[in-house]
Amino acid sequence: MFKNLTIITFAAGLLAACGGMELNNAQMATPSGDAFSKALHGEYVTLSKNEYGEGDYEDSDVFAMRAIAAAGGKPTEPEAVASRKQGGGAAKALGAARDRLVKAFSNGSKSSLPADSARAQAMYECWAQEQEENLQQDHIDQCRIDFFIALAKIEAAPAAKPAPAKPMAKLSPLTFIVYFGFNSTALDDKAMSVIGTAANVIKSSKPQVVSVVGHTDRAGANDYNSTLAEKRSDAVSAALAKAGVSGRLMTLGSLGENAPSVSTADGVKNAENRRVEITVRY
User: How many CB atoms lie within 10 A of CB 233?
Assistant: First the structure.
């Protein structure tokens, strides 16, 4: 009988020795990450030590593992109320406290007051742990008081202002080219496709101005070509307006045969020169 009792006692001691083994790992961890993570690591190590000293090896390991996570720059969120068995009144009080803590965090307290924010999270979890045990009222009270002291500090901190938006880089002008048949102002399917694409870009990118300039090749008389280029410009601008482009954005022009895309001798026909250039400027 005594032999069995010795075995049971030894086994119990062995089980107890298995708990609390994470504390040393937490103490040896080198904190990285932001100031909040580093401060939270220290707070959790202290909680782990306290529980280890009281023989609560399970909770010592819980806090130690959270310390290790914080040291790695990946701190855990404040413990959920439902993760511990709490009485109705205690659960309600802890839930309200956690909501206030999370709200303070969302307002930027982790950045503006990292040490106080870490203290508030650690003391909230200390309160939850001691409340679940419900053995030492003075410990419950102390953790709760320390939590509310830290919470008051981070709630009083001004909310972090969002970073100013970076100015949008100025866009380069975009040019769309609509081509025409010889001596024609008609818009074929390919021309309408280009105009449709240009219209969609214009409506979605808010340019300052859209210039629509007509051109011809060098076949024909100069005066005739000037008029023909103008008619081409009018045809394209009308199609753009029909596609939803505001007329107030558009400026119309005609250069006739005077600005060919491909240099040719006078009187030479060239399909690339028979065009309207839609230039979108920002």
Answer: 26
